[in-house]
Amino acid sequence: MTTGTLWLVPTPIGNLGDFTSRAVDVLSHVSLLCCEDTRRTGRLLQLSGITAPRLAVCNEHTEHDLVERVVTALQYGNDVAVVSDAGTPGISDPGERLVAAAVAAGLTVTALPGACAAVTALTASGLPTGRWVMEGFLPRSGQSRNERLAEIATERRTTVLYEAPHRIRRTLDDLNAACGSTRRVTVARELTKIHEEYVHGTLGTIDVGEPRGEYVIIVDGFTPDTTPPDTETIRSALDDVLAEGVSRRDAASIVAERLGVPRRLAYDLAIGARTTPQPNE
């Protein structure tokens, strides 16, 4: 029996003109269309002249329950498509579980190129695009949110996040606290729509105005300080380690590794350290 294909079909993130002719063709012939909101997708199909196939609600609460139905439909030779309300399915939207199940069953999965808010905002941000990481939506509260913010603070790649209008200011404040006020950032909203806007600045100065629309936040990567520590910094670190009761030789080794300085330099400074010499030196 010939099996069907699972199609991942991007939908416009604002401008209907970004809906490709290939996407229209695929959605015109599938037997089942998995979507987040049947009313919103139904309207898109209507505007595009597509006779609606069978629709199945696929969101964070229902995707798991659709897996068996979708895999069975594919195994019986039916094509199935997945769309999100806007953008590319599976990117901070439903679709990931269905794809994983289809791949595990040895079925064909095909993704169409198309609209994606993360890539659109990133390429126009003015920040480095060679290496970047997608964080999606941060956890709303608790330790998991704090841990993610701490990871972003030391992430050397450009970071892309999504945020809702009622949380944008809080998230920018949290990023400022975690990453520092001088970290560069671009905030994009209402992409491809009439009121599309990009705001560039630093986390300490950026002003997004009155929140409205969906946001993409692009945060510059962390740049470690490569300035060698000065003599006084090394001496201070040696004093702290010597105060713990270790020998000058061991203190020099510890500080050399900790600060990334030559061990010989640390040892020479340890010999003249202010702390009283320890036994076994």
Structure, explained:
This protein has 281 residues and is α/β, with parallel strands linked by helices. The protein folds into 3 domains: 5-115, 3-Layer(aba) Sandwich (Cobalt-precorrin-4 Transmethylase, domain 1), CATH 3.40.1010.10; 118-219, Methyltransferase, Cobalt-precorrin-4 Transmethylase, Domain 2, CATH 3.30.950.10; 231-271. The chain contains 10 helices and 10 strands. The strands form 2 sheets. A 5-stranded parallel beta sheet has the order 3-2-4-1-5, with helices on one face. The longest helix has 13 residues, at 63-75. Residues 275-281 have low confidence and may be disordered.
CATH-defined fold name of the largest domain: Cobalt-precorrin-4 Transmethylase, domain 1
**Succession of helices and strands:** EHEHEHEHEHEHEHEEEHHH
Radius of gyration: 27 Å
What gross morphology would you assign?
Answer: elongated
- Domains counted in the coordinates: how many? 3
Main β-sheet, spatial strand arrangement: 3-2-4-1-5
CATH-level-4 superfamily name of the largest domain? Tetrapyrrole methylase, N-terminal domain
CATH architecture of the largest domain: 3-Layer(aba) Sandwich
Summarize, please.
The chain has about 280 residues and is of the alpha/beta class. It has ten helices and ten strands.
